Amino acid sequence: MTTVAAYAAPAAKAPLERTTIERRAVREHDVLIDIKFAGICHSDIHQVREGWGEAIFPMVPGHEIAGVVSEVGPGVTRFKVGDRVGVGCMVDSCRECENCLAGKEQYCLQGQTPTYNGIGRDGEPTYGGYSEKVVVDENFVVRIPDGLALDVAAPLLCAGITLYSPLKRFGAGPGRKVAVLGMGGLGHMGVKIAHAMGAEVTVLSQSLRKKDDGLRLGADHYHATGDPKTFEELRGSFDLIVSTVSAPLDFGAYLSLLKTEGTLANVGAPEEPVSLNLFSLIGGGRSLAGSMIGGIAETQEMLDFCAEHGIGAEIELIAASEINEAYERVENSDVRYRFVIDTATI
């Protein structure tokens, strides 16, 4: 085992603090990664504060990991020392169920192993990317193309795949009108990716405060949901809406913006239950769908797509000592658009 420095929350709602953790010795098919950058996802905050339920402490968050391979197990065939790699939201799955065999490990019927706040199949707790190193099975590691800088690539391992997967699944592309609801860490990636796919892209945001950014990143239109006229003007406009909002919404109002048989795909995960009048679905033959990250193969596909189109996250690089402040700023929507930790500062 190897002792490495990390930032951890010792208890629910406690500030994160510098500590040390143990990483397992490299096994037959393991890859040891020197972490260079780790993104801060709103999911980290939900879990550190037990907003999604009881959690495991101490917790080392972080599932947007970019780094360089420094050691490989004797059976590793996919990677070699020096490769630029990433790790996203999961580090294992059963690998036997129909979903795993279909490349949808995120929906493993036995439960995928999360990168942190989970228990691995060896019975040990998992610790995430706010640390110097991580050991991961090669089957859950992806290659970061040379055209992507590691710092702007890190958030793609969650934010990027979270938007790429539903945009691809529901046919974002030429001739399709796509709305991205929420212009934050997830939403700004949705704008970039949907634009690169060739869709006509609209941002739906609470205000017009980030309009210039939205248009610069690839949106064709930008509307404020805080203005009731928006819902009148845009009624029946979109083939697809992807909601990134992690707070309860008036789903009826947003479903009314869809064309007949349009889809609202939800990737935001509010802590509170939401309500829905089913007539808002039935009336137009509309669909309300969910999506959670993507499988390993699709994540690699997303990274290759982003490299081909010059897409990285818009980031603010911070030192590890600024993590707690960054959490507060995320809660206050005071980031454009993803905090990334320089792990050399841990």
Main pleated-sheet profile: 7 strands, mixed
CATH topology assignment of the largest domain: Quinone Oxidoreductase, Chain A, domain 1
The shape, in one word, is globular
Number of strands: 17
- CATH architecture of the largest domain, please? Alpha-Beta Complex
Radius of gyration: 20 Å
Number of helices: 11
Write the layout of secondary structure elements.
Elements: E1 2-8, E2 17-23, E3 30-39, H1 42-48, E4 65-72, E5 84-87, E6 90-92, H2 98-101, E7 113-114, E8 133-137, E9 142-143, H3 150-153, H4 159-169, E10 177-181, H5 187-197, E11 200-205, H6 211-217, E12 221-224, H7 229-233, E13 238-243, H8 251-255, E14 258-266, H9 279-282, E15 287-290, H10 296-308, E16 315-318, H11 323-331, E17 338-342
Parallel strand pairs: 10-11, 10-13, 11-12, 13-14, 14-15, 16-17
Antiparallel strand pairs: 1-2, 3-4, 3-8, 3-17, 4-5, 5-9, 6-7
Describe this structure in words.
The protein has 346 residues and is α/β, with parallel strands linked by helices. It has 2 domains: 2-158 and 294-345, Quinone Oxidoreductase, Chain A, domain 1, CATH 3.90.180.10; 160-290, 3-Layer(aba) Sandwich (Rossmann fold), CATH 3.40.50. Helix content is 23%, strand content 26%. The chain has helices at residues 42-48, 98-101, 150-153, 159-169, 187-197, 211-217, 229-233, 251-255, 279-282, 296-308, 323-331, and strands at residues 2-8, 17-23, 30-39, 65-72, 84-87, 90-92, 113-114, 133-137, 142-143, 177-181, 200-205, 221-224, 238-243, 258-266, 287-290, 315-318, 338-342. Strands 3, 4, 5, 8, 9, 16 and 17 form a 7-stranded mixed β-sheet that branches. A 6-stranded parallel β-sheet has the order 12-11-10-13-14-15, covered by helices on one side. Strands 1-2 form a two-stranded antiparallel ribbon. Helix 9 (279-282) links the parallel strand 14 (258-266) and strand 15. Helix 4 crosses helix 10. It is globular, with a radius of gyration of 20 Å. Its EC number is 1.1.1.2. One of its GO terms (molecular function) is alcohol dehydrogenase (NADP+) activity. Its cofactor is Zn(2+). It catalyses: a primary alcohol + NADP(+) = an aldehyde + NADPH + H(+). Residues 14-341 form the Enoyl reductase (ER) domain.
